[in-house]
Design brief:
This protein is of the alpha/beta class and 218 residues long. It is built from seven helices and six strands; from the N terminus they run ββααβααβαβααβ. The chain has helices at 42-58, 74-84, 104-108, 110-123, 142-157, 177-192, 202-206, and strands at 11-18, 31-39, 90-97, 132-137, 165-171, 211-217. The longest helix has 17 residues, at 42-58. The model is unreliable at 1-6 (pLDDT under 50).
């Protein structure tokens, strides 16, 4: 009898922390972070999702409860990170200090700013991302979503690039615990750069061995 191994399918959950605006001092963040939570096998994504759902159940939270870094306290954040510490995924992220962005086009257009830096972190992957299914939070205008898909398909799968992206789909973060995981990871990395926060190093330290690349854009 022949046994055929199931083809491993890479799936990536993506979120950002901070905002793409440049009104620093008037509400815009000084920092912008995009993190990729990469599962090299969908089966590992499923196992991680089940672990998070079990954690939610043990907390006595409803199925509709959403893990969001900025709405949780230090204790709950720490417990969450410890729960997913042994799960099999890796993290690649880009950290943008806005003072280092000189392009007027990126400074004036939030959509182009976001699209550009998402492309950057996906494209410069040291050959570690191939034929990936990308998953993003579904919030946003349909026009913007379609434009992003078209842009990434052109930039990531054409020219000298190998096929980075298989497809991109938008999902509801309230229903998808792995998008919630991406929110937590991104929030933890963002917090690391907030010098005034007493818990700045706590979360990144727990997931240190999962961070494959942390790119400070210059």
């Amino acid at each position: 009898m022949l046994f055929i191994d199931r083809i491993a399918v890479m799936i990536i959950f993506i979120d950002e922390s901070g905002d793409p605006g440049f009104k620093i001092g008037q509400g815009s963040s000084e920092l912008f972070v995009i993190a990729l939570v990469i599962f090299d096998k969908e089966s590992e994504a499923e196992k991680t999702a089940n672990r998070i759902k079990e954690f939610k159940k043990n907390l006595g939270k409803s199925k509709k409860y959403e893990f969001k870094f900025n709405k949780m306290n230090k204790s709950l954040r720490t417990d969450f990170f410890k729960v997913i510490q042994s799960c099999k995924f890796r993290v690649r992220c880009i950290v943008v200090l806005k003072e280092r962005v000189y392009s007027l086009e990126l400074r004036k257009n939030k959509e182009k700013f976001y699209n550009y830096f998402l492309r950057e972190v996906l494209e410069h992957n040291n050959n570690t991302i191939k034929n990936a299914k990308l998953r993003l939070d579904g919030f946003g205008e349909r026009r913007i979503k379609k434009a992003l898909i078209s842009y990434l398909r052109k930039e990531l799968n054409g020219g000298n690039n190998k096929k980075v992206m298989e497809n991109l789909k938008f999902v509801d973060s309230k229903k998808d615990v792995l998008i919630q995981l991406a929110d937590m990871i991104t929030g933890g990395i963002y917090r690391y750069y907030q010098a005034e926060k007493v818990d700045k190093s706590v979360y990144k330290k727990i997931i240190e061995d999962k961070i494959e690349d942390l790119w400070e854009f210059k």
